[in-house]
Amino acid sequence: MSERCYIAGAGEFCSDILPGQGDFIIAADGGFTSLNSLGITPDLVVGDFDSLGSVPDHPNVIRSPVEKDDTDMMLAVRYGLEYGIKTFIINGGLGGRLDQTLANTQVLAYIAENGARGTLYGQGVCVTAIKNGKIEFGPDLAQGATISVFSMGGKARGVTLTGLKYPLDNATLTSDFPLGVSNEFTGAPACVSVRSGILVIIWES
Questions:
Q1: pLDDT value of residue 203
Q2: Which has the closest alpha carbon to 129: 76, 78, 27, 199?
């Protein structure tokens, strides 16, 4: 069983964020084109193929109806979770339409709710979500680079930020007040943790 799931979406694609050896690779609709242009064959292709325009010639295609509850990205994540994968690398999930970007942020929260970790990669930016846990950053991130932390739904309690320009200690973040926006790395190791709730974390890569 693969330890990571690499998903290519139809959004802004970063050609320097590529699958690693042993990754389970899923193309979500138009993400198939991005992978194909780099000579990468996915293990699975899912979607309604409205972005791609046609069903791709691939041995493992799961086609969904256009009118459905799940986005193509959510479908891809569901299949990854069914395989028991706990780490998701998502390329092509940022940029483009704002509604799809927000939807993909909710997908990160869904991944966190299911005990896994997903990260969206864009041009110079990364986004992840954690639930009742923490994420640590090494000192390699540039001093002054921006990091923002938001509560995803309800309240996030016991939020602690260390190693950042503006620390927090056991704070409560809410989804209607952006207290955690525009913090900065200091060149020291940093940590973002939450005791109860989900945090969405955005930082410069």
A1: 98
A2: 199
State which residues of the chain have pLDDT below 70.
1
**CA 195 to CA 156: how far, in whole Å?**
8
All domains of the chain, ordered by start, with CATH? 4-128 (3.40.50.10240), 132-204 (2.60.120.320)
Question: Per-residue b/e over 144-182, b at no fewer than 16 CB within 10 Å?
Answer: ebebebbbbeeebbbbebebbeeebeebbbeeeeeebee
Beta bridge partners of 155: 174
Q: Give me the pLDDT at residue 62, please.
A: 87
pTM for the whole structure: 0.92
Beta strands in 51-165 (DSSP E): 61-63, 87-91, 117-122, 125-131, 134-137, 146-151, 155-162
Q: Which residues of 1-13 are buried (b: 16+ CB within 10 A; e: fewer)?
A: ebebbbbbbbbbb
